Amino acid sequence: AEAKAKEHGKSAIESSSATINQNDLKNFLEKLASEEYEGRGTGDKGERMATAYLASFFEELGLEPAGNDGTYFQEFGFNAGKEMNSGNHLTIQIQEPLGLVRTMKPGQHYLPVNFSVSGEIKSARTVFAGFGIQDKEYNSFENLNVKDAWILVFRGSPKDRKELQKFGPLVNKAQQAKKLGARGIIYMKGPNPGVGKMLVPPSQNVGSNNEILPSITISDELAGSLLGGTENGSFQDIFESFYSGKKVQGFPLPYSISAQIGLDKKEDKGRNVIARLKVKENRSEEAIMVGGHIDHIGLGTRGGTRAKGKDTSLIHFGADDNASGIAAVMELAQFYTDLKKQGKLDLKRDIIFAAWSGEEMGLFGSKHFVKKQKELKGDKIYPSISAYLNLDMIGRLEEKPLIVHGTGS
Ligand SMILES: [Zn+2]
């Protein structure tokens, strides 16, 4: 895929002109925001492609590589959520008839959530607690004893209860359950259109990097067998009566559950792209920098999505944020390179063109650059980089004015 992206970078040069024009910008943007580039999630295939595309564009222009080891790339490591180790099981013991045991498979019946506590969780009784929300006017826990119990809850919040939406996120429910002294929390999806994928993988950041409480999402199939078929009706019926707001409080269930949860931190790598246009034969002492972030949020697997329901796991194309900024960086690089060729580049300082990755996850790429630069320059960035222009979301201004922010100068 990277080899293909390199070809795209070359043909981007061939099919564009040195002047700054709308057509070039549009073509660059459309490539970066194309389906093939999968929304450029940091560390993902789409980010490798987008960075390869840009590096090959810079190379064709004849810019000097300014990344690591004579390349255009500057790699950085980042915390990419968690992954399961071999120590994961979930056992459900049915009390009626006593002794029947079901062993669940991680990945098929359930998955531990990113903020789950790891370790052995001893057998405990189970209480179904509706949406697991405690508010003044709405209390899922009233008359329920959930101390030291697993609580089983629906994700999200009841339909048409806007004021309860803020209690919907997984992390809020886990914190609430912890406050009530629950042993762990189990989340069910059901036919809720406002909730994303059924099993939420531990690689996905869902609002906290801290371990809160043993927490797992389960399949609707398992949820159905835990909750349905009782005197309370089918799983679907139970979901509907809570979702519509008819019922609020849950009830104890005839199961005890034990688990082993094993999550390890996962490291991944992203990369910046950096190139230098030299004004003279040698590098100038000081340089001006022009850049933007090249990453977007990919398939939403690392969080940051504002999509709802099924849409959370689709490609987030990021045309405006920030294929638009990188398209402008490319256009400027091409323009100034051409000026230099014509002998018209009348500047004192070199221009460094940069594309940062990891921005959406917390400015990881640019932070890494700053750290490395400080190591090189004795804790100082200025004046070796005397000014930096960052381009972010310049694709939908239309009739609105350009917004310019100054910071830290
Ligand atoms: Zn942005």
Written account of the structure:
There is one protein chain. Helices cover 26% and strands 25% of the residues. With 409 residues, the protein is of the alpha/beta class. It folds into two domains: 2-79 and 268-390, Aminopeptidase; 86-261, Glucose Oxidase, domain 1 (3-Layer(bba) Sandwich), CATH 3.50.30. The two termini are 41 Å apart. It binds zinc ion. Zinc ion (ZN) is lined by residues 293, 321-322, 392-393.
Q: Gist?
A:
This protein has 409 residues and is of the alpha/beta class.
How many individual β-strands?
14
Backbone structural class? alpha/beta
Described by the principal axes of the CA atoms, the overall outline is elongated
Arithmetic mean pLDDT: 93
Q: What is the name of the CATH architecture of the largest domain?
A: 3-Layer(aba) Sandwich
Per CATH, the class of the largest domain reads Alpha Beta
Q: What percentage of residues falls in helices of 4 or more residues?
A: 25-40%
CATH topology of the largest domain: Aminopeptidase
